[in-house]
Design goal:
about 950 residues, 6 domains, six-stranded mixed beta sheet, 29 helices, four-stranded antiparallel beta sheet, alpha/beta, Isoleucyl-tRNA Synthetase, domain 2, Rossmann fold
C-alpha cells in the first residue's frame, strides 16, 4: 500500500538534495514566459485546509506550465497589514481597545505586528513546502515592505492628479471594538442571523389628539437621532382606532401589528401623510430639541415587515443619510468611535450603545412613546475580523471616486477569461454597484496614507519616499527612517508648498486591499524597471476564492485601470469554500475545523491534493478524513500499478499490434490531448478525471487484466511501461510526490519527472472508432458480470458461452478475446439484432474443475504474498485434495505459482513453513510450501 507520509518525506529530501527546482528553472530560463501573480496569504496564523486548496491549484498550473517549458517567476506573497494581524497581536498582548494599544506604545505594537508576520510567514512557507508547492521561497514579497508602500503612494498620487481622491463625510459601517470604518467590499459576507428586540414606538402627530404614527425599528440606540419618518407614497395605509388611540400604519401589516382588537377608520394613500409633523421621542435632549420632525416620501419603504413607516436617523444609517440630503434633513451623529454617546444627549452622554437598549425602552415607556416590543430574527453585519456587531456612524473619511473609472473597469474586466464563466458576470454586477472606495482606516499597523492637511487649506499628497524627503522639514530624518510605518513615519513633517508651515501626516492608515491590489506593479518593480515590468505584465493567470471578486481581483483591477487602463490579469480561476464532511462551515468554535498540519500528518499531501483536484470548484468542498480514506484507495491502485509495471520495464520500444494494446495506446494519446485541453481551459477537475480514467480504469483494471497472460511478451511490456510513464507525467502536476517516486522506481532518464517535457499527443495513434467499440465492449462485459452475479457464479469459474446480439456486431468481433478474458467464458458468439447479452450459466464438470484450479491458484498466490516472497522466488509446493482433478493442471499450476516441485496428496502430514487450510465451495484443500 502507498505510504504518503513516508514517500513525501523522501521526495522532499530528493528534490532538495538534487536541486530539482533549480534545474527546472534553469532549463526553462529564457523561454516563453508564463506570468502568475500570487494572491498573498495573510501571515497571521498557520495554514488551514482551505488555504491548501488554493495553493494546490496554484501549484498544479505552475507545474503544468513548467513541464510545457515556460519560464516563470514563482514569487510567493504574504499579506502583512491590517486588522487580520492587529487583532491577533492584540490577543497576544492582552489588549482590548485602541486606547490600550496607545498606552502600550505604537512602536512596540508595530514591532509586535512585524514579528508575528515574520513568524507565521516562516511557518506557512514550511507548510506550503510540505504540500508540495514549488515557489522561490527566498524571494517572497511582503505587502508591509517599503517598496510595496511606495507603489501605493504612487497610485494615490495618480488618483489625486485625476481629481478622484477626496475627503468626505458619510455614514459608514463602524466597528466599535476595532475603532474604524469599513468599506463596502468588506461587508458582503459578514451578515449573520441574529435575534434583536424590535421596538414599535408611537409618535404623536402635531395638532391632533391621541393620533400617532406607529414606527418600527431594531436599532433603539438611534432613536435619539430621529429627525423624520418615511412613508411610501404609493402604498396604502390605514387610520386605525385601538383603546382610545388612533394609529397610522401600512394596511398590509395592520392585523399583524395591532392584533384583532382594532377598528379601521379610514384607508389612506401614503402620499396623503407626507408633510405631517410629529413630536419625537427624545425632543427633550439638548441636541434634538430644535428639530422639526416630519413625514417624508421614500419609495424604498416596504410593507412586508415593521409598520410601513420608517424611522429616519441620517447620522446613523447610510440610506437614511442619502434621503436626508435629498430632503434637506438635519444630521445628528450621537456616538463617538467607541460607541459612547457624546455631549448634548443628557442622560445618554457617556453611556455605550451596547448597554443602552433596555434603558431606551424604559424611557419610551415612561414617556408614553412605547407601543410594544418583540424578538426579531434578521441578518445583521459584523466586523469581518473581530466578529463584533457593527454600527453605522457619520464620519469623515478618505475616498476614491468610482464613477469616472467604472466604465473602463467594466470594459477591462470583459477582456478577462473567467473560469467558471459566471465569475465575469459577478464582477460586472459588482462594478455596476460599487460605491466610492473608502480607503482610510483609523488603525495603526498598515499603509500610512501620505496625506498632509495644512491649516491653510492645502492638502499635499506624497507620491514617493523621495518626494517625502524633498518636502520634508528635516530630510535627514527621512533617510534614517527604519520603515514606512507608524509611529516612525509620523515623525516626518513637511513644509506646506503653499504657506511653508510645518504639516503633519494625517493619522489614518489605508485599506489593506490597497496593499494587495498593487502587487502586479510592486512585485514587478514598476517604478524602477518598466522594461522588466512590461515583460511580465499582465499576469496570464491568477486564482483565489470567489469572494475575492469584490476584494483582491477588484482592487487589482481598480489600481491597474487607474495606472495603465488595462486589466492586470488575463485569466481568473475561482473556487468556493471548504466545509466539513457534513457540509457545515468549518469553525474552530464548532470543533470541526481541520488544520493543515493535522491533515497532512494524518492523510498526506497527495491525498489532500487528490481531493482538491477532483472537486468542482463552483461547489463548496466537503473535506474530512472519511473522504480522504476513499481518495487514498485510488492512490493505492496507482501505487500498486507502478509496482506491477516496474517488474516489466525492460522493454520500451512499442511494436504491439493486438487490439488491446492498440486500444490502450489510443486511450493514452487521447488522455494526453484531453488533459492538456482541460488544463488550458482552467478545468483541473476535468483533467484529473481523465487521468484517473486512464490510469485506474483503462490501464490498471482493463488493460492490466487483458495482458495478464502475455506479460512475458516484450511488445506488451513496452506498451504497459510507456503508457504508465506517460500517465504519471500527466499526473505529476496534481500529485507531485507519488508521481516522482513512481518515476524514480521506473529508473526515469531525466533525473526527475519534472525535468521531463509535458506529454504531447501523437494524434496518428488515436483511433476514436476503436475507443468507441471498446466502450461498447466494456458495457457488454459489465452486463455479463452482472448476470454472473445474479447467478452467483464468481468470475474465476469459467462458463461455456455468451451470445451477444448487436445492431452492428462486425466491429465488435475483433474484441472476442477481450470479452473472453474479462468474463471468463470459453466461447463468444455474435449475431445481428437488438442489443442484448445472453450468458449460458450451465457449468460442466470440466469447467468446474478449471474453476477450482483458478481459485486454488489465487489462494496459493495469497500465501506467497503473506510469506513476502518475490516473483522470482521458487517454492516446493504441497497440496492436499480428495479428488485427483488437480493432476491435469499440475504443469500449469507450477508455472503460475513459480513452484520448482509440486506434490499432490490426500493429506499433508509434514509440517511446512507456510501453511494454509482453504475451503472452496464445499471442497477443502491444504496448501504448504
Amino acid at each position: 500500500m502507498y505510504n504518503p507520509q513516508e514517500v513525501e518525506k523522501e521526495i522532499l529530501n530528493f528534490w532538495e538534495k538534487h536541486k530539482v527546482f533549480e534545474k527546472l528553472r534553469k532549463k526553462n530560463n529564457g523561454n516563453k514566459r508564463f506570468s502568475f501573480i500570487d494572491g498573498p496569504i495573510t501571515a497571521n496564523n498557520p495554514m488551514g485546509v482551505h488555504h491548501a486548496w488554493g495553493r494546490t491549484y496554484k501549484d498544479i498550473f505552475q507545474r503544468f506550465k513548467a513541464m510545457q517549458g515556460f519560464d516563470q517567476r514563482y514569487q510567493n506573497g504574504f499579506d502583512c497589514q491590517g486588522l487580520w494581524v492587529e487583532v491577533e497581536v492584540e490577543k497576544d498582548l492582552g489588549l482590548n481597545s485602541k486606547k490600550e494599544i496607545e498606552e502600550y506604545g505604537l512602536e512596540k505594537f508595530s514591532k509586535a505586528c512585524r514579528k508575528r508576520v515574520e513568524k507565521y510567514s516562516k511557518i506557512q512557507t514550511e507548510q506550503s513546502i510540505k504540500l508540495g508547492q514549488w515557489m522561490d521561497w527566498n524571494n517572497s514579497y511582503y505587502t508591509m515592505d517599503d517598496y510595496n508602500i511606495e507603489h501605493i503612494w504612487h497610485f494615490l498620487k495618480e488618483c489625486h492628479n485625476k481629481g478622484w481622491l477626496y475627503k468626505g463625510t458619510k455614514v459608514m459601517p463602524w466597528c466599535l471594538r476595532c475603532g474604524t470604518s469599513l468599506a463596502q467590499h468588506e461587508l458582503v459576507d459578514t451578515y449573520e442571523e441574529k435575534t434583536h428586540e424590535a421596538v414599535y414606538f408611537k409618535v404623536p402627530i402635531k395638532n391632533t389628539k391621541n393620533q400617532y404614527l406607529l414606527i418600527w425599528s431594531t436599532t433603539s440606540w438611534t432613536f435619539c437621532a430621529n429627525v423624520a419618518a418615511a412613508v411610501n407614497p404609493g402604498l396604502m395605509y390605514v387610520k386605525a382606532e385601538q383603546s382610545g388611540s388612533i394609529y397610522y400604519l401600512a394596511e398590509k401589516v395592520a392585523e399583524k401589528v395591532l392584533g384583532g382588537n382594532y377598528k379601521i377608520l379610514e384607508r389612506i394613500k401614503g402620499n396623503k401623510l407626507i408633510g405631517l409633523e410629529y413630536t419625537g421621542p427624545f425632543d427633550y435632549l439638548p441636541v434634538v430639541k430644535n428639530i422639526k420632525h416630519k413625514v417624508v416620501a421614500w419609495k424604498e419603504v416596504g410593507d412586508d415587515e415593521g409598520t410601513g413607516i420608517v424611522h429616519i436617523a441620517p447620522g446613523c444609517g447610510a440610506e437614511d443619510n442619502e434621503l436626508a440630503k435629498k430632503e434637506n434633513l438635519p444630521e445628528i451623529s450621537p456616538i463617538d468611535e467607541n460607541g459612547d454617546y457624546m455631549e448634548g444627549f443628557d442622560w445618554l452622554t457617556g453611556k455605550n450603545v451596547k448597554k443602552i437598549h433596555k434603558l431606551v425602552v424604559e424611557d419610551l415607556e415612561k414617556n408614553n412613546f412605547l407601543y410594544k416590543t418583540e424578538n426579531y430574527r434578521h441578518r445583521y453585519p459584523h466586523c469581518w475580523r473581530c466578529k463584533e456587531e457593527l454600527v453605522f456612524r457619520l464620519v469623515s473619511e478618505w475616498f476614491i471616486s468610482s464613477d469616472e473609472i467604472r466604465s473602463s473597469m467594466k470594459r477591462n474586466a470583459k477582456e478577462v477569461f473567467w473560469q467558471p464563466e459566471h465569475g465575469g458576470k459577478l464582477m460586472q454586477d459588482w462594478l455596476d454597484n460599487m460605491q466610492d472606495w473608502n480607503i482610510s482606516r483609523r488603525r495603526y499597523w498598515g499603509l500610512p496614507l501620505p496625506f498632509y492637511e495644512c491649516s491653510c487649506g492645502h492638502t499635499e499628497i506624497i507620491g514617493s519616499k523621495e518626494e517625502l524627503k524633498k518636502l520634508s522639514a528635516d530630510p535627514k530624518k527621512v533617510d534614517s527612517l527604519p520603515e514606512l510605518h507608524k509611529p516612525w513615519v509620523d515623525e516626518i513633517k513637511i513644509n506646506c508648498p503653499k504657506c511653508k508651515r510645518e504639516v503633519s501626516r494625517i493619522l489614518d492608515v489605508g485599506d489593506c486591499w490597497l496593499d494587495a491590489g498593487i502587487v502586479p506593479f510592486s512585485t514587478l518593480n514598476y517604478l524602477q524597471d518598466k522594461k522588466y515590468w512590461g515583460r511580465w505584465f499582465p499576469a496570464h493567470f491568477v486564482t483565489e476564492m470567489r469572494e475575492q471578486i469584490r476584494l483582491w481581483f477588484y482592487s487589482m483591477l481598480f489600481m491597474s485601470t487607474t495606472l495603465k487602463n488595462i486589466s492586470p490579469y488575463k485569466s481568473v480561476f475561482l473556487y468556493e469554500k471548504v466545509h466539513d464532511e457534513k457540509g457545515k462551515p468549518m469553525h474552530k468554535s464548532a470543533g470541526n475545523a481541520i488544520w493543515f498540519d493535522d491533515a497532512v500528518e494524518k492523510m498526506g499531501a497527495d491525498v489532500m491534493r487528490w481531493l482538491y483536484s477532483f472537486q468542482n470548484p463552483s461547489v463548496n468542498l466537503n473535506f474530512g478524513y472519511g473522504v480522504a480514506r476513499e481518495a487514498k484507495r485510488d492512490l493505492d491502485v496507482i501505487w500498486n500499478l507502478g509496482n506491477y509495471v516496474k517488474l516489466y520495464s525492460k522493454h520500451q520500444k512499442e511494436e504491439a499490434n493486438d487490439v488491446a494494446s492498440l486500444w490502450i495506446i489510443s486511450k493514452r494519446e487521447s488522455a494526453k490531448e484531453n488533459v492538456t485541453k482541460y488544463l488550458e481551459k482552467l478545468q483541473p477537475q476535468q483533467a484529473i478525471q481523465e487521468i484517473k480514467q486512464f490510469l485506474i480504469d483503462d490501464l490498471s483494471r482493463t488493460y492490466g487484466q487483458l495482458i495478464r497472460e502475455e506479460l512475458e511478451d516484450k511488445k506488451v511490456q513496452a506498451v504497459l511501461h510507456n503508457s504508465f510513464l506517460e500517465g504519471i507525467k500527466l499526473l505529476a502536476p496534481f500529485l507531485p510526490f507519488i508521481a516522482e517516486k513512481l518515476y524514480q522506481n521506473l529508473g526515469g532518464k531525466k533525473g526527475s519527472i519534472f525535468l521531463e517535457d509535458w506529454p504531447e499527443p501523437n494524434k496518428k495513434l488515436i483511433n476514436k472508432d476503436l475507443e468507441v467499440y471498446m466502450k461498447a465492449v466494456k458495457e457488454i462485459v459489465q452486463e455479463v458480470l452482472a448476470q454472473r452475479d445474479k447467478a452467483k457464479i464468481g468470475v474465476r469459474w469459467p462458463l461455456p458461452n455468451v451470445l451477444i446480439s448487436n445492431e452492428n456486431p462486425k466491429p465488435l468481433e475483433q474484441f472476442k478475446d477481450v470479452i473472453k478474458r474479462q468474463t471468463n467464458v470459453k466461447q463468444v458468439t455474435f449475431k445481428t439484432g437488438k442489443n442484448s447479452v445472453d450468458l449460458d450459466t450451465k457449468m460442466t464438470e470440466e469447467l468446474e474443475e478449471e474453476g477450482y484450479f483458478r481459485e486454488l491458484t489465487r489462494r496459493i498466490q495469497e500465501l506467497r504474498k503473506k510469506a513476502k516472497l518475490k516473483k522470482e522466488d521458487k517454492i516446493r509446493l504441497y497440496v492436499a485434495t480428495k479428488g485427483d482433478f488437480l493432476k491435469k493442471f499440475k504443469e500449469e499450476l507450477m508455472e503460475k505459482v513459480n513452484a520448482a516441485t509440486i506434490q499432490i496428496e490426500n493429506k499433508l502430514e509434514k509440517k511446512h513453513k507456510y501453511y494454509s487450510k482453504e475451503k472452496i465451495k464445499e471442497e477443502e484443500f491444504e496448501i504448504g510450501f
